[in-house]
Amino acid sequence: MTPAQRTMPFVTRVLKSPVFAAVIFLAFFALAWALRAGLIQKDTHQIQANLANEAHALANNLEREFSIQAGALGRMAARMNNNVYPSKSVWQADAHTYLNDFGIYQAIEWIDKDFIIRWLEPVTENQTVIGYNVAFNEQRRRALERSAETGQPDISGIIDLRQGPKGIVTYHPVGQGSENNGFIAGVFKMQVLAKQLLTARVIDQFQVEILQRGEPSYALNTSSDISAVFRESVPVNLPSLDWHLALSPTKDWVENQRSQWPSITFVSVILMGVLASLTTLLGQMIFKRTNSLLRTRLELERQVDERVAVQVDLERLASTDTLTGLANRRFFMEDLSHTLNIADRQMRQVALVMIDLDRFQVLNDTLGHQFGDELLIKVSERLNCLSSETILVAYSGGDEFMICQQQMDDIDDVIHLIGEIKQCFAEPFEAMGQVHQITATMGVSVYPQSGQDADTLLRNADIALYRAKDQGRNTYQFYTEGMQEKEMMRLELDKDLSEALANDEFVLYYQPQLNLDTGEINNVEALIRWQHPTRGLLSPVEFIPLAEESGRITEIGRWVVLAACRQLARWKGTACGHLRIAVNLSGRELEDATLVDHVRDALTTENIAPHMLELELTEEIFIQNIAQNRSQLSQLHQLGTRLAIDDFGVGYSSLGYLRDFPVDQLKIDRSFITNVTERHDDAVITRAVINLAHNLGIQVVAEGVETEDQLHFLQAHRCNLAQGYLISRPIPGAELEKAIREGALFTGQPATSEL
């Protein structure tokens, strides 16, 4: 028997022995124990990794939410920096929209450059913070000053809010550096922030701590049974903040995270444990993949919703004026074209009304563009009340509005609409705390009589509007045949006007003023005429309104002052050497900051004494911008020129400016002089003006004197000077010099009324 044959039975016995079974069991037991310990250790690492993922997800969500909120505040600060908010109420409305869109805000504030809270939305439950200085310590002041200088947003960190418990304030500067105009601030309460950022699962299963500069600053779920083994801290990347987010799980969460497979593997067969572990791992992978796909789907749906919202906003912006909220010009013209197509098929009439606000440009220039924008909004609100299924109201731009009446049976329908438009302007408008009475001038064109398409209809309504403006303010005009030809002639005249100065086509005529005390001529008024190369001599009424519309009136006014000074220089040593010349100034000239310098230069260049030049302004111009006009007129008065008020007594009742302005002379409007001997009221007003002026030490000139009875009345009531065709019509300088030399001005015979 060989040794191998002898050992076989031994091996068989051993294999069959219970000891071998025990050894096998112990081997499997040892292997199972080792596997169990390994699986437990693996579970521990997985729990820590899951905790880290939760912490990073919370930190990323916090960073993303703050980025969204900061971006929103930044857009609001940009709009405020661009003066989009004409008033507090508009700002509050926009802030209210932000509060609705972003539920995380407790409040939105505007803080001025001195760090004082001025505006707040909502005011309810937050009244106590209005007027509060947010730079409540040196650290906060330095942080806010740095933010204002760099233009970067600043976050306060967790502080005790004045309107409640702990919270965070995000400040976004309005403008940068020296252009800074304060901050737009968003206030978050910590409990509101937690509700927005943390799900119920996170709040129930974790203790969340915010560490500020390494120190605990705020904690949630402090009462739960927290595991002392696991804790994860991750940094939060926020501007100007040193934050870490610490996440500690509850014991229940840890237990729920632990796998049951280590225990099953310890009891079960190794192979079944391995297979079960592989099955579990595979299930976990499928679950994670499913969750990833679900998150991707939700993100795609969110992006689709955002794109749809953006498309809706773009469509709304494309058809709506952002300032007034009315339909814009583009949408109005498209709708008008569509309306005309329908009207053509149904054989209906359509009316187009162009509306121009009277004196809006003057108010806008003198009171500021913010006032003008607020006034346009108030006008739009009233006009929008006329909107209906058949009436479309739109804002054309500048100071013009358009209204389309899409269905009308006869002209009475348009007249009724015009009456409703006038009613919109019946009450004064209040803007920026000031009340002004605004009127409107309108031009009307009717389809199909006034045009067959939208562009023609609009052009003809515009022509009718200009014709109405020529007739005066607060009126309307329908387009009629022949208007377009007149408008073309007007445009040609406007074109020629641009070359008139360069070609030296303007001349001055002079109308004498008779001194009623001495019977002498010591003053004359310079009146401009245009010697047009093809149309002959044109009076001011034919081209001065065009000059004012185009802005050339300032250049023409400069020419008149210089031409008057040159005439005074030529008259030296002649029979007209003692004459003082009065020239008219327009409102635009008075707004020119270089007016005083120009007058001074003209007097100096021609070596003319300042008192020989008199500057006349209408009463309306005097009171349009009292503060600026007082400064300009005071400088002219100090220069030595005389100042006169023309057209006195027409349309104004406040006489306080006579006390405030350095006025030397009043000119009673010709409307009072024409019937002064026939109408008792005109006589009373004329006497009152003369007495008022004399009591203030001001001379009085009566315009439009054409009869000896009028002259005798003025002499009897101590009027100082008289001007009109009774004395002389306006004549060139050479003729005036000859008439004074020959004494031909004192015949007492009325002159002809032609210019």
UniProtKB/TrEMBL annotation:
E.C. designation(s): 3.1.4.52
Every CHASE domain range: 112-197
Residue span(s) of domain EAL: 490-744
EC top class named in words: hydrolase
CDD domains per record: EAL, GGDEF
Alphabetical GO biological process terms: signal transduction
Gene3D superfamilies in the record: 3.30.70.270, CHASE domain (3.30.450.350), EAL domain (3.20.20.450)
Entry-linked Pfam families: CHASE, EAL, GGDEF
Alphabetical keyword list: c-di-GMP, Membrane, Transmembrane, Transmembrane helix
NCBIfam families according to UniProt: GGDEF (TIGR00254)
Name of protein: cyclic-guanylate-specific phosphodiesterase
Organism: Marinobacter litoralis
